[in-house]
Write a structure and sequence with these properties.
Largest sheet of chain C: 2 strands, antiparallel
Number of helices of chain C: 5
Number of domains of chain B: 2
CATH superfamily of the largest domain in chain B: P-loop containing nucleotide triphosphate hydrolases
CATH topology of the largest domain in chain B: Rossmann fold
Strand order of the largest sheet of chain C: 1-2
Order of helices and strands of chain C: HHHEEHH
Chains: A mainly alpha (211), B alpha/beta (300), C mainly alpha (123)
CATH architecture of the largest domain in chain B: 3-Layer(aba) Sandwich
Helix content of chain C: 55-70%
Radius of gyration of chain B: 21 Å
Structural class of chain C: mainly alpha
Strand content of chain B: 25-35%
Helix content of chain B: 25-40%
Oligomer: heterotrimer
CATH architecture of the largest domain in chain C: Orthogonal Bundle
Number of domains of chain C: 2
Strand order of the largest sheet of chain B: 6-7-8-3-9-10
């Protein structure tokens, strides 16, 4: 894990680290606290922020690293460790997203749950926001392989679909005991993480072949 | 002279729309500097990408250092032993020189940071602005980027370099330096290190070129040691009145009202008997142009 | 060592001839190693294959011997053999002169005269 962090640290530049690890989470937490204090907030803001910020930052800071048509990989491709390197930074990226978006998301949910009865359930099921973030980021990863502008639309459409799926899940699983619900959530979290890593790796391997 | 080969390929094939790279046999001799020469679009970069293992969608078999097969190409250790430099999008543009150094340390076992830094100084990667590792790669000119890439591969422990157009973005002084560096690299290897480079600047690189491969339309049309090529082809110059007769014999020819000049295959030299001609040893550049002309689609 | 790029004599031959002169003049002694192929190439800024071919030429003439993995060393110079070699060279050159004379229809006496004239000019 330490090696993976080292890879991630070397791969991203200082501006990216400052923005994504400090500015974005602080801004999101501040915004959410403000909104919740005013009785607004419905659990959507953080997820949309995730879609938007991560897509834009990838294009802007990382030259669309995860895009299929990314052409700036020659140096990395010429190393025998390319696939491993990408796997490492993808895993850290997942961890980073969970760490960075978790707190603002929870703040937002708690606020929303207080104002909306139907989200009361969230308080008893700690892993739910985690899962939501992982699903959201898989959508970001998949959407990255679309053309730049359609990415934005794809993110918004997919965002609604993911949330609907989550609500459905809450209704189905949430009727059981909190222990079972949390177990199901943990399994789903693991599956989502694995799918994301697998998907990214697959896309990166495709870069060795004609697009 | 018994030869060993650093990379051997068989039946390499890659199809694009309207272009096919097809090379039945391919060899790079070990311990030498080999030049890949050809028109734009002849397939040089595609071939180099295939050999460097950054393009894996070609058919055929490739063997590295007589140890690794193509099946292992993706992750096998031969990439550790080969340094590749390309003219395209090599680094991610958001990277700084510092990141290049750090990522290199992660990606390659045999990368030496101190050597990288001294090479960057030596090649004046940072220009007159002093040692600034926070500089972004995307802010570099093509020439500086090439210097950085060269510093990067030369700071590694490698046994072969694959350099795609290293001379093109460099100024004359740097080209001279490039030649020196290639020669030092080969000399230090004492027969174990090889360099394979593509170039349009044949004259600048001629003095260090041992083996030449000339490509046209995705095929190899001529190859051999430069000393042998210089015996196979002869540069002849003659008088205007022999123009028509000479044209039938010569491999390629240019003529004007005052005389003709052309490349003749040594085996056909007898057929020019009786003409008042002068013979010269052609330069590799002259041989390359002749071979390219004879095989080019240009103007057909 | 001087190398002329456009002299009409291949570079490897120029190198071989200059090394040969050094050996025959005793500047390089029996058992001395020639500089390694790749370092000489680097020094002279010429290709490796050119120096390799030059050394092979010297080896073919019996002036040096290749030692596996160690490079080339200078052989003992057999003065009788050297004389023989030079004699053969003289014969070859004269033969060429005779052939040229025949083509031009120059008589034997005239040819001898020319040779004598050239010899006296040398003196």
């Amino acid at each position: 894990m330490l090696k993976a962090w080292r890879s991630y640290w070397a791969f991203t530049n200082d501006l990216y680290k400052l923005m994504m690890l400090v500015v974005v989470p602080v801004a999101l937490i501040a915004t959410n606290i403000y909104l919740v204090a005013r009785g607004h907030g419905d659990g959507l803001l953080t997820l949309f922020a995730l879609y938007f910020i991560d897509t834009v930052s990838d294009l802007f800071f990382m030259n669309g690293f995860y895009r299929k048509s990314n052409s700036s990989l020659e140096f990395l491709q010429s190393s025998p460790k390319f696939a491993r390197f990408v796997k490492e930074i993808t895993i850290i990226d997942i961890v980073r997203r969970v760490l960075v978006y978790q707190i603002p998301f929870v703040v937002e949910l708690i606020g929303a749950a207080d104002s909306a009865e139907k989200l009361q359930w969230c308080k008893g099921n700690a892993f739910w926001p985690w899962l939501a973030i992982l699903i959201a980021q898989l959508v970001v990863f998949v959407a990255r392989h679309f053309v730049v502008w359609s990415q934005m639309y794809a993110c918004i459409v997919a965002g609604y679909m993911v949330l609907m799926f989550c609500f459905l899940l809450i209704i189905i699983v949430g009727s059981g005991s909190p222990v079972i619900t949390n177990l199901v959530l943990i399994v789903l979290i693991l599956v989502m993480s694995m799918v994301t890593v697998w998907y990214t790796n697959k896309k990166v391997r495709e870069s060795y072949y004609d697009s | 002279m018994s030869l060993e080969y650093v990379i051997k390929g068989e039946n390499i094939e890659k199809k694009f729309k309207g272009f096919t790279l097809a090379i039945p046999e391919f060899k790079i001799p070990k311990g030498f500097a080999t030049a890949l020469i050809g028109e734009n679009g002849a397939g040089k970069s595609t071939l180099m990408n295939i050999l460097a293992g950054i393009r894996l969608d070609a058919k055929g078999t490739i063997r590295y250092f007589d140890e690794y097969d193509q099946v292992e190409r993706e992750n096998a250790n031969q990439k550790e032993r080969i340094g590749y430099v390309g003219p395209g999008h090599y680094y991610l543009p958001h990277w700084t020189v510092k990141q290049v150094e750090e990522v290199s340390g992660i990606m390659f076992e045999g990368f030496h940071k101190d050597k990288f830094e001294s090479l960057c100084q030596e090649l004046a990667v940072y220009g007159t602005g002093g040692f600034d590792k926070a500089k972004k790669v995307s802010s570099f000119s093509d020439g500086t980027k090439m210097k950085l890439m060269l510093a990067n591969v030369l700071a590694r422990d490698t046994e072969a370099l694959i350099l795609d157009e290293p001379a093109s973005p460099l100024d004359p002084l740097m080209r001279e330096k490039l030649c020196e560096m290639i020669q030092s690299y080969i000399e230090e290897g004492n027969g174990e290190r090889s360099v394979f480079f593509s170039t349009h600047n044949v004259s600048d690189m001629e003095n260090i070129t041992d083996y030449a491969i000339i490509m046209e339309h995705g095929k190899i049309v001529e190859e051999g040691f430069v000393v042998d090529l210089k015996e196979k082809y002869i540069l002849v110059k003659g008088d205007a009145e022999d123009k028509a007769k000479a044209k039938e014999v010569l491999y390629t020819m240019t003529a004007n009202n005052y005389g003709f000049e052309g490349i003749c295959l040594a085996e056909n030299l007898d057929k020019l008997a009786g003409m008042n001609i002068t013979k010269e040893i052609p330069s590799l550049y002259q041989i390359s142009v002749a071979v390219m002309k004879a095989n080019s689609m240009m103007g057909r | 060592m001087r190398i002329l790029q456009n002299s009409g004599v291949p570079i490897y031959q120029q190198i071989a001839e200059q090394m040969k002169a050094d050996i025959l003049a005793g500047k390089m002694k029996q058992g001395d190693y020639l500089p390694s192929i790749r370092s000489l190439a680097k020094e002279l800024k010429i290709s490796v294959i050119t120096t390799m071919k030059a050394y092979e030429l010297l080896e073919a003439e019996g002036l040096v011997t290749a030692a596996q993995g160690k490079g080339f060393y200078v052989n003992a110079q057999d003065s009788e053999m050297l004389r023989e070699q030079h004699l053969r060279k003289v014969e070859d050159a004269l033969q060429e002169a005779i052939a040229a004379a025949k083509i031009a229809g120059i008589s034997e006496a005239e040819l001898k005269q020319t040779l004598e004239a050239l010899l006296s000019m040398e003196e």
